Amino acid sequence: MIIVLKPECSKEQVLMFTDMLTSQYNVKVNKWEGVHSTVLGLIGDTTQIDIDYIDAQDFVESVKRVQEPYKKANRKFHPENTVIELSNGVKIGDGSLQIMAGPCSVESEEQVTEIAKRVKLSGASILRGGAFKPRTSPYAFQGLKAEGLDLLKAARKATGLPIVTEIMRVSHIDMFENVDIIQVGARNMQNFELLKELGKVNKPILLKRGLSATIEEWLMSAEYIMAGGNDQVILCERGIRTYETFTRNTLDLSAIPIVKSLSHLPVVVDPSHATGKSWLVEPMAIAAVAAGADGLIIEVHNDPAHALCDGAQSLTPDQFDSLAKKVFKLKDYMKDNI
Ligand SMILES: [Mn+2]
């Protein structure tokens, strides 16, 4: 962190300020005295320092971070990849490709179990499905809620696939005790109270990127969960809001290598919500794998035309099978040749 002091800052103020910084934050302060101003260079862990507090001091001209504000999610302090292992031995982040697939919403036991069986045959290793649905319209289908969770568990029993499903509020955490991966949706990425509580849970968290979140904001949300003691965070790029209206969102493929260089956490990509159109899901899934994604999360429905949610972006089990064959083939090719 670099702090530029105003020319009128007295020697006593500089001394008091540097003493406060060294004692309170345990950092080393280097001082350069110029003709017009004094510059302080802080060395050490500056993540605890509130940059706005520093900026608010009337003798401070400007302040700039030169190091990322997140520590636990930062690859600098944890060079090796984090690998998340699920109860059935599935590993995310170990160099393999894992696919989470299933319906947007759980609609009935037959629907979710049938889809789970089909996607498993195609190579999916995790079943996705929404029980609590955050919908743009309050009049749209809100999910089967607790019953939906039970139906997901029934599908897990029938197939052995671990389940990932979205949580929307802190008071529901107990209900998610038997869920394998808890998803935090894009709209809740900055629900800090929820993130803090999930930091106390000993379970993997799939953290989707917010609709208009920067990569740093997304990593700071991961930091919230990790600061609470839960290191099992999986990041999910699901498209961001841009001026483009052709697709539901714009898939930020560059986020994959960027996040993987900044952080040690695994990254999965959701081409379904990113594009909103079923015919774009396969090419974007292929692109995501080529860009280094550790996994994909894809919406599959046995009858997309009658799906209660997100039918237009859902693949049929046959379309998913074709996609899975291609991405696994690409992953194998990359392993051997790239
Ligand atoms: Mn959906």
From TrEMBL:
The gene is aroF. Residues 82-335 form the DAHP synthetase I/KDSA domain. This is 3-deoxy-7-phosphoheptulonate synthase. Its EC number is 2.5.1.54. It comes from the Bacteria. It is an enzyme of class 2 (transferase). Residues 1-68 form the DAHP synthase ferredoxin-like domain. One of its GO terms (biological process) is aromatic amino acid family biosynthetic process. InterPro entries: Aldolase_TIM, Class-I_DAHP_synthase, DAHP1/KDSA, DAHP_snth_FXD, DAHP_syn_2. It comes from Candidatus Limousia pullorum. GO terms for molecular function: 3-deoxy-7-phosphoheptulonate synthase activity; aldehyde-lyase activity. Keywords: Transferase.
